[in-house]
Amino acid sequence: MNKTILAIALTVSSLSAYAQTFTLHSADMQNGNSLKLSQIYKGFGCDGKNTSPQLSWTNPPIGTKSFAITAYDPDAPTSSGWWHWTVANIPANIRSLPANAGAQNGKNMPTGAVQGRNDFGYAGFGGACPPAGDKPHDYRFTIWALKTDKLPIDNQSSGALVGFMLNENVLARAELTPNYGR
Questions:
Q1: What is the mean pLDDT of residues 24-49?
Q2: What is the H or E stretch that residue 11 is in?
Q3: First vs last Cα of the chain: how many Å apart?
Q4: Could you read off the pLDDT of 130-159 as tens digits, one per residue?
Q5: Of 114, 122, 110, which Cα lies nearest the Cα of 50?
Q6: pTM score
Q7: At a CB cut-off of 8 Å and minimum separation 6, what does 121 contact?
């Protein structure tokens, strides 16, 4: 029995260590640095290009069946944050998305991937646009490695619904947190 417990402990330890190497990268943004004009919303008083950043990820955990991406502003003055982007059902063999994959038309998304509705009211990427004069907001871009190949969502699914389903199916996640203020 002690050998079985030790084997289970080593397996859990190995999986945890492997999951810690799961990382998210971007050619368009970095942790702690300000977002570029490309990732700023066009509207609500902001005059950016509203382009989702290029993203790539490495070392997903064993058993990953699909990926999801979220972009969320926890500093938005709403009491519930602000969902800028949700994407689910990205096939397990995909390891990157090009810049502007989050366009409303979805033409740059991998086959089968679904963008949920952001808090601007449409399915697709909505860039940063904090209130003028606020301290810079943090924008959490997260890649989720999931234990299911498909979540039952569509382009009308809210960020809260997608977030709930992600937390129910997550194996590991990695994050980049740039910021932006105006």
A1: 97
A2: helix 2-19
A3: 61
A4: 999 999 999 999 999 999 999 999 999 999
A5: 122
A6: 0.88
A7: none
Dist CA 124 CA 29 (whole Å): 19
**What is the distance, to the nearest Å, from the Cα of residue 175 to the centroid of all Cα atoms in its chain?**
8
What domains, with CATH codes, occur in the chain? 2-180 (3.90.280.10)
The CA distance from 99 to 51, in Å, is 7
Q: Which residues pair with 117 in a beta bridge?
A: 123
Placement of tokens 């699909």 in the chain? 66
Residues near 79 by Cβ (< 8 Å), separated by ≥ 6? none
On whether the CB atoms of residues 69 and 87 are closer than 8 A, the answer is yes
* Tokens (6 digits) for 45: 């008083």
Tokens for 177?
A: 């947190």
pLDDT > 70: what percent of the chain? 89
Q: Contact 179/34 with Cβ under 8 angstroms?
A: yes
3-state secondary structure of 6: helix
Give the DSSP H/E element, type plus range, for residue 158: none
Tell me the residue type at 157.
Answer: S
Region for 35 from its dihedrals, namely left if φ exceeds 0, alpha if ψ lies in -120 to 50, beta otherwise: beta
Instruction: Return the structure tokens found at 50.
Output: 């509203």
Q: Kindly state the tokens that stand for 48.
A: 């950016």
DSSP3 helix / strand / coil % (the chain, rounded to 5): 20, 30, 50
